[in-house]
Amino acid sequence: MQIDLSINTDVAHQILTGFIKSEVTRAGFSRAVVGLSGGIDSALSCVLAVEALGRENVLAVRMPYRTSSPDSLAHAELLIEQLEIPSKTIEITEMVDPLIAKDKEITKLRKGNIMARERMIVLYDQSEVFKGLVIGTSNKTEILLGYSTQFGDAASAMNPIGDLYKTQIRQLARALNIPAPIIDKAPSADLWDGQTDEGELGFTYEKVDQLLYLLVDHRYSPTECVEAGFDEKFVSGVVKRIQRTQYKRMQPPIAKLSNRTIGYDFLYLRDWGT
Amino acid sequence: MKLNLALAQIATKLGDVESNLEKHLEYIKQAKSQKADLLVFPELSLTGYVLQDLVASVAHTPTEDDPVFKHLLKASNDLDLVVGFVDEDSRHRFFIASAYLSGGRAVHVHHKVYLPTYGLFDEGRFFAWGDSVRSFDTRFGRVGMLICEDFWHASPPYLLWLDGADIMLFSSASPGRGLTDKEKLESARWVERVSKAYASMFTSFVAHCNRVGFEDGLLFWGGATINDPNGELLAQGPYFEEALTVCELDLNQLRRTRARLPLLRDERTALVQKEMSRILSAR
Asked: Is B2-282 a CATH 1.10.443.10 domain?
């Protein structure tokens, strides 16, 4: 089959802004908070939130660490200026460094997780100050690959972009006039110098999106994906990765004891009563 | 004969029947002011769709002593109504239901016969399956009602047709899904395609009323349609937003179309029955 991930950006735009407006207001809020990393995902979530709620109702928070790329800060600034939205810059170095200093053996991975979780703390604190809900910035590719820090960058009150693959995020970002430097640069969690998503994952988003599109959206078996032209090792690696990170996509399971247990047979939507 | 048909594609509050009733009464007022003869609401219009454990607490019965239906039955003295609700029978089974109200009484209640329990749907877990597909007489002729998944299967519309329905009223709570590069979501394209096909094949009027609004991450896409016995689209509501779509149906079109295209006259029901018996007995 022809693998075509292109989307109608007008329809996506209409649905996603409607979603933010509906879910923010039904939770009793009118404002939102977005952590702006300078990357494309948070830029897109931010633009959608501004269009849904109005520019005075979205707070952009930049949270650099001392090793963060200066480009990240500058790119976030580009968007803040373009959107004319309130913003804050809260450096996380002085919160993060004392914990990192406690262990000389600390790994890059642990440091990265600490930074991601510190940013979550800052964001949720600003959520209370600004009286706005935290808008998620995880895309479908990274959610499926589990390429995120649990309770860190993966934490949010709602996620408008979690059903869009990275290549679709790029298409929508272009349609919504997000500044070109943000769209064109190599995606990076910017947790250490020179880190790029594609370098760390070992494949490009474009390639893995096509595979995920067959596996997930079109229910192809791994064998069928190989028959469709994907490398066997690549396919099995991605399938294993999805399976291994399922825990990141779920609430922690509760051990069942009673006749009615949260998560199993106590079932209500979040929009209950609204 | 003319029928001024109105379709109310509303958003609902999940589990808040009182508030949804108020919205029904507002739309009834609006439809009345536009001289509608019949007003159709979407599937589960009084309750919201993803009810899960709310099912038992939002159930009602379409009788005069019911605190919700007494208002709707009263309103049905002015114009006929189709409303979506959770029907509880005397043995406490809960059905996804549509009631046709006219002249202060419930003329017909349809229980959804196909409960989708796959993909994002879990209706079979929470509801009992309806077990009949019947047309019924109204002041506009014979009518049939189906609910969402009912008309994803070909047999319920076919049965209604054979049972005399010239006007089919479809109601839905259809979540939007299948975003591609096309202007319409896949779910909308599918429903529009089959509605048009039924109108064409059964040379009948087919109206579809789908709700709007979000429930968590699900967006119901609206886009109410009315197709005439030639399969031509007479009216369409907008996508994603609340609207009242009103359209005058010239019921004489049934006669003109069927004089030209006698599909109903030529339908070989005895052949269907014979072959159906053979197919089922061979299983």
From this structure: no
